[in-house]
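This part of the workshop introduces the protein records we will be handling. To make this concrete, we reproduce a full record directly below.
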Amino acid sequence: MTDEQDGVGPAADGAPRSSGAGRRARPAGNGTGRRRRRKKEHGLAFKVFWRTVLGFVALGVIGIVALVIIYLKTPIPQPQADASKQVSIVYYSDGKTELGRFSTVNREDVTLDKVPKQVRYEFLAAEDRNFYKNSGVSITGTVRAAWSTLSGGQEQGGSTITQQYVKNYFLTQDRSVKRKVKEIMIALKVDRKMSKDDILQAYLNNIYFGRGAYGIQAASQAYFGVDVNKIDASQGAFLASVINAPGLYDPQYGAAAKARANARMIYVLDGMVKEGWMTPAERAKAHMPTFKTYNPNAQQVSGPNGYIVSAVRAELENKLKLKPEDIDRGGLRITTTIDKNSQKAAVAAVNKNVPSQTARLDALHTGLVAEKPDGAVVAMYGGTDASKEISAANDAQLQGGSSFKAFGLAAALQDGMTLQTQFSGASPLVLNKNSAKPTKITNDNGEQFGMLTLQRAFAVSSNTAFVRLNQALGTGKTLGAAQQLGIPPTSPGMKDPVPTDILGSAAVRVIDMANAYNTISAEGKKADTYFIKKVSSVAGDYSYNSHPNSTQAISKGIAANLINGMTGPLKDTDGTAHSTAGLFNRPAAGKTGTSSHYVSAWFTGFTPNQLTVSVGMYAGTGKKAGTVGLDKATHNSSFYGGDVPATIWRDFMEAALKGQPVAKLPKSKDVKSTTSYSPPPVTSTTQPPTTSSTTTPSSTPSSTSSSSSSSSSTSSSTLPPSPTTTTTTTTQPPSPTTPTRPSTPIPPPPATPGVQPKASEPQPTP
């Protein structure tokens, strides 16, 4: 018998096997012989689903228990210190010496019965229509706000009036999840502890309305000049609307803000009708109210420092994105870049040199900005009183005059020319001589020059030589270089390239001129201007540290040659600032600028890679820069950039750099053409594009464009915080033809009758 033979033998488990092949074992059971049904097993998906459900239920239970524990352990804290005790303070760069502080809070509490009933309901219609029904918390609004916080999105509304009151009165303004949970718990407790009317009264007395006003009584006075018990339904609807975002809805910021306020008021008033709190007939009578004139500088720091405080506030709002209420009562401690000694030197230099014996002194304005290579502003003078006049340093826009010749020189060096390239300085130069209105360009007092190297032409500021240079460069190259170095393309005149734009018909701010020259000083590295070094808060819920950055706008070699080429106005015995800024006993470079009819006068200069300072002056009352000639305002026969502005510059630099190392001029370098800038886009111009023709020793570069260096003055204005970002679509101009460089001197053109504007850069007379 083989191993495969049927038979009785041990089973695999050692038990005896049943006899008989294929015989089935009798199932155990009741003896009926029925087969037992096998238990069905669920699939993996079923198990995962129910285990997930049970997990969520468990988490939910744990979460509820945790929330209950948090609720029980969260006390209603003491109110935050009054806003007046949490005022934000601005310090000099040492972080210890106070420079100024933001206005103390305008606030006056009132009882709820002083607020007209209809006005109360307008706030409910705007912020919390279920106020008298809810438990103090909006679940949907809270979830939406929490998601926005977790995802890093924009801060969301949706909180109840109770939550808003808790946030503003008990908590800090940080956006953490922990603070939001705390807000919810305190709101639930406050809703149980206080009556709805008490909560509403506290809310109306603490909310920020803009214009420095906290509480509805202060807001009624700030916007309408009346007590809260006198405001009508239209005024109440506006106040209920403006709290949503005072910087966006206050009509003081222009037509766009007023339109937004109008749309918000419609939402509020329609909500009043929907809720039955106002009849359609009453709704039909509602209108945009008339507002009280508001002076945002009324409570500013007085004197020159007020302009710095204003600039710091603008940077907090625009760059750091802080809200006005965060700034006013956030208990911020702001350390600026302003050096105390440098600021003192700026004020002293202006006071010493601005003419004092004149009946029109009130019409004379001086702006000064001193900037380090990384963009830090160490001193700024904008005027005598920030509460009375706009800043001559960072608000007013002045014609640039021959300060723009530095940008033309930068364009020339990038385009392959050298400081030794020559152009004729003969005067006059007539543009469009065959047109009905030819334009004649002259040097100051008709002064004649022969052939001039670019370095010499820059030193003596020859108008005719630089217009000829601009023709050779081609349309837009000078304005393109100005933009490349730091002049904003939005400045008036920066989008209208013409042959004479090199004479500075565009209008710029002093702070922008300082920044553009600072790029040259820093060997071509362009840095953004900034005033704030660091920020902290008393509550410890906010901190910021500046991180300056720069980009290489022009090559280091080009910048080195440009710096050396710009020493002429100081070093050259015929230089336009030789007798003033030239007396400064350190290596330095710079340029004067005097516009037509003396509507503005400039000197901007620097010690390389150390300190850049721009001084700009204009005359005129109100918000118009250059409405009065500087010569008339000071009762002088002339007023040049090489006179008072250059002297202010020298006196400031001597004081500000006292004890500091002496900066050296960089070595000139042999560089190749590195034209990398683009001409600015043309949006409006009455002239066709400039074309350049091949030149010979007997021909003169010509232009079909017409221009006058006596461009009209440009108005200055105070810029409010921009509520929206506007995108402007522009088109590029036709590419200019590549000009042929003059290989031999270009002779002056024959004198031709034409329109005679005054030179953009008059030369100082002995």
